[in-house]
């Protein structure tokens, strides 16, 4: 299989957000002439507000409002000067009060995103390294990526995995001066904590370790003077820690704050901090509101507010304990996450709660893995106990209704979040269906398979029998695949759906760009299975084409699709697959919204190329249909060299030729990290030579006919489709004899001679194939992962030098 294009991440996010927007739960506009914080106007309704990040409700405090109004009267709506030149008159007071809160030097920033962009490139030296928690906020990751241009190593660990962190510290300790670990204090989706005490212990063990903690969600509602969770755990702020807090969210105003006890680093950042220097400063109203909030934080009142919120959080926790709702993380933070698993269930649940009178947020990709979608609920001092109780009652009622409406059950959610499975009402999606799931094509009726699926690629019945025999009992684990064949019938035993899956070891970077693969392959020199995972894939790494047959006109097609999803999830759990991939779909895929709703994200693959041939076509007639420009290309760069080349069609090849063919294939495989898969087993080429459906188109130079300079490995799928599955070349002769173009042309000639109706030219090199008349079509895959770690790690590694 060719590499999936990875530069479409933003397109993927756009599709997910668009889906949620169309479901009516994102990109909404609040309504109303006033706003109290307790309720919010949405779609002509006043909803109880359980989505705020103003946990203490200070954004509605009359003292902050009055201060902001007075500042506008005195100083205007903004102070349009760079803070590097002069700060507005209120800044000094704010800096003094926030310094008093933290008892350490501070720097006020416009917001936390700009703050990270200003601080990280200053704090991290070219001799340092960065390790990111894979759930650290996007703004931190984005700022860290800038340092790839300075060749600063950036790596990532799984969420809160300190054993993994320690291993990476050890691997970097000999080559790097400082090792920065970047994490959140409180994580914004699940409301879970960073293990700050353990990190502090690890920093004592490894003096090179420095901590960079974004604690904007831990601010105000906990800690001395409301300085947040991280500082409450750290106690004193040592020089190896940089801490970010916020003046917005719970603080009630705007802006962010960096706390730094290292005087030298503090002066360097404050003197020149990129966006901190060139961005506009906070507006006078924001500064004044922040001063009023700081006064509250410096008074005993802050502890009264914290206790008031804590009472509400404890009450909500106690109510949830009496339910079977899948609460993903239980702790004392005001952030809660109720898992729904599939996005479509999340959409349904949120819409039901809004109709019932409650506003909540949906946690969705990329903030969480797609199949870890859920409802994010925040508790604030605005929320009264009676509406907190009413929310829990509404969730208990509508959660089961949302499951039923989306043909799922709680067990799927428990599995998705790796929680202990509780008893739940099962939704039977198999009514009126007969499901056949086999582990060998030998157990599947040949005619049914070939009629539904097997008229293309190397996955007719005979082709799959060949693949099963080739990819078993091999020495290397990546050369051993497991196969499953799924056919779903109606009551009359008529197939509604048919497809097949393989479980095999994939390189994780197969889905990313060449720069990431280069960095990872360097690691694989000593650890060949570095960043590899067991993947459950529709089709195989050997096949391309339409792997899924669905009778779109069948009245219970939906039930068949749901049954397929349950089969996939069962196989995934039983065999511990880390990723599920549904492959080779057209751009206008009628199942697109269904797959997204089931927790898959769409990524673009290389374009697919095919040629349709007329009955009794001749090669002359075919070439005459090419454009004049392409005919000229054909004459000058392909046909002109036929006389000096020895071109043969071989049904079998000698042992010596097999060695040459294998080497030629390896040349192509190794030369293209854009196709970064494991190689195929050695016995493949002998098996091809012994199989009646395979043949070899070989090219030699007539003057030196002892060795092959190019080969196309072709499969004959019945009498319908000719499949040039793989190519091998000697690159020393590629440009002199246009070897690849010659192989393509000879493939077309062979298919025409055999009177095939279609040539599946596969993916990649679409520019070359188009010149010879191929129809080029976009192809997409749908991917579902158990977490976002690999996806985010690949994003970090891309562009590494």
From TrEMBL:
Residues 50-393 form the Aminotransferase class I/classII large domain. InterPro entries: Acyl_CoA_acyltransferase (IPR016181), Aminotransferase_I/II_large (IPR004839), AON_synthase_class-II (IPR050087), BioF2-like_GNAT_dom (IPR038740), PyrdxlP-dep_Trfase (IPR015424), PyrdxlP-dep_Trfase_major (IPR015421), PyrdxlP-dep_Trfase_small (IPR015422). Gene3D superfamilies: 3.40.630.30, Aspartate Aminotransferase, domain 1, Type I PLP-dependent aspartate aminotransferase-like (Major domain). Its cofactor is pyridoxal 5'-phosphate. SUPFAM superfamilies: Acyl-CoA N-acyltransferases (Nat), PLP-dependent transferases. Keywords: Aminotransferase, Transferase. Transmembrane segments: none annotated. GO terms for molecular function: transaminase activity. Signal peptide: none annotated. It comes from the Bacteria. Pfam families: Acetyltransf_6 (PF13480), Aminotran_1_2 (PF00155). Residues 628-769 form the BioF2-like acetyltransferase domain. This is Aminotransferase class I/II-fold pyridoxal phosphate-dependent enzyme. It comes from Mariniflexile jejuense.
